[in-house]
Amino acid sequence: MKFTVQQIAAILEGEVVGNPEAEVFKLAKIEEGEEGALSFLANPKYKSYIYTTKATATIVSKDFEPEKEITTNLIKVEDAYKSFSKLLEYYNQVKMNKTGVEQPIFIADSSSYGENVYIGAFTYIGENVQIGNNVKIYPNAFIGDNVKIGDNVTIFAGCKLYSETEVGNNCTIHSSAVVGADGFGFAPNEKGEFTKVPQTGNVILEDYVDIGAATTIDRATLGSTIIRRGVKLDNQIQIAHNVEIGENTVIAAQTGIAGSTKIGKNCMIGGQVGIVGHITIGNGVRIQAQSGIGRNVKDGEVLQGSPALNYSDYNKSYVVFKNLPNLANTVNQLEKKSNNE
């Protein structure tokens, strides 16, 4: 899809310096700009590239004045970075503006969907499913019985939403995510064999939740596994049964959270963190990558290590740990000296 420089400037409420009729049809970094590309300059470190870029147009802030000749057309705006972000959002909306119901698909007669929806080919939608307005469901998705999906939701290819799952408004679920699979519940019998405990609950995603690719969220044994408003989950995260994650908490890839743990709001959890079950983590907690959490955590704590320590205590301990060979050598020398005396 092609746009003129003037059309881009109109979207961004900017001013064109150069040829307003020049056409762009792709986006590029300023150092990699080529003919037909639109780029931007926001960081002063990249200023030198404005004189060498081959990009057809470059978004700059209004106070930018070139110090020598340039070949790119300029679009001057109040804030180059914010304007480029706005343009990316606009571009994404245009690119993903699909509507209609493709074939072949299966939609149960008892299910319904709202206006301006897109349902991709080979999607299965079970009984009593309710789908809101402006929902996009990409090909090969599975939507189980009694699932509820709000407005402005995007479900990418290959997602699986098991029965009774509830998805709020303005959520995004990326490819191959599985929401609502059985929790890991087994009980030993008198023979020492493990028998399955039925998982009869569901998963609730509140509004503005993002779920990364291949992330899995298990249904509750009883009640609900709840992901609160504004939570952002990275790729390949495991959320076990009956977990609750508080508002606006963000969690990086490959983290695992065991069953019935409650995590507060506005937390930041790094990648590959392991969290045991049946504990409570407070609000505003920061957990560094690869930490292991085996206890309740108070509001505002910052943790690192496995088992995790207070962040400053961990750093102090790590200094000692790195010096253990020298400390051991010193102790050995003192022992020899003491024995000789």
Task: List key phrases describing it.
single chain; 341 residues; alpha/beta; Udp-n-acetylmuramoylalanyl-d-glutamate--2,6- Diaminopimelate Ligase, Chain: A, domain 1; UDP N-Acetylglucosamine Acyltransferase, domain 1; 2 domains; twelve-stranded mixed sheet; ten-stranded parallel sheet; 4 helices; 16% helix; lipid biosynthesis; Trimer_LpxA-like_sf; transferase; EC 2.3.1.191; UDP-3-O-[(3R)-3-hydroxyacyl]-glucosamine N-acyltransferase activity
Q: What strand line-up does the widest sheet have?
A: 8-11-14-17-20-25-28-31-34-37-39-40
- Could you report the average pLDDT, rounded to the nearest whole number? 93
Which runs of at least 5 residues are low in confidence (pLDDT < 50)?
Answer: none
Strand runs, count = 40
CATH superfamily of the largest domain: Hexapeptide repeat proteins
**Proportion in helices:** 10-25%
What's the tally of helices?
4
Q: What oligomeric state do these chains adopt?
A: single chain
Provide the structure class: alpha/beta
Pathway: Bacterial outer membrane biogenesis; LPS lipid A biosynthesis
Active site: 241 (proton acceptor)
GO molecular function: N-acyltransferase activity; UDP-3-O-[(3R)-3-hydroxyacyl]-glucosamine N-acyltransferase activity
EC number: 2.3.1.191
Topology overview:
Layout: E1 3-4, H1 5-12, E2 15-17, E3 23-24, E4 26-27, E5 37-40, E6 57-61, E7 73-77, H2 80-95, E8 100-101, E9 106-107, E10 112-113, E11 118-119, E12 124-125, E13 130-131, E14 136-137, E15 142-143, E16 148-149, E17 154-155, E18 160-161, E19 166-167, E20 172-173, E21 178-181, E22 186-188, E23 194-196, E24 202-205, E25 210-211, E26 216-218, E27 224-227, E28 232-233, E29 238-239, E30 244-245, E31 250-251, E32 256-257, E33 262-263, E34 268-269, E35 274-275, E36 280-281, E37 286-287, E38 292-293, E39 302-305, E40 308-310, H3 311-322, H4 324-340
Parallel strand pairs: 4-5, 5-6, 6-7, 8-11, 9-12, 10-13, 11-14, 12-15, 13-16, 14-17, 15-18, 16-19, 17-20, 18-21, 19-24, 20-25, 21-26, 24-27, 25-28, 26-29, 27-30, 28-31, 29-32, 30-33, 31-34, 32-35, 33-36, 34-37, 35-38, 37-39
Antiparallel strand pairs: 1-3, 2-7, 22-23, 39-40
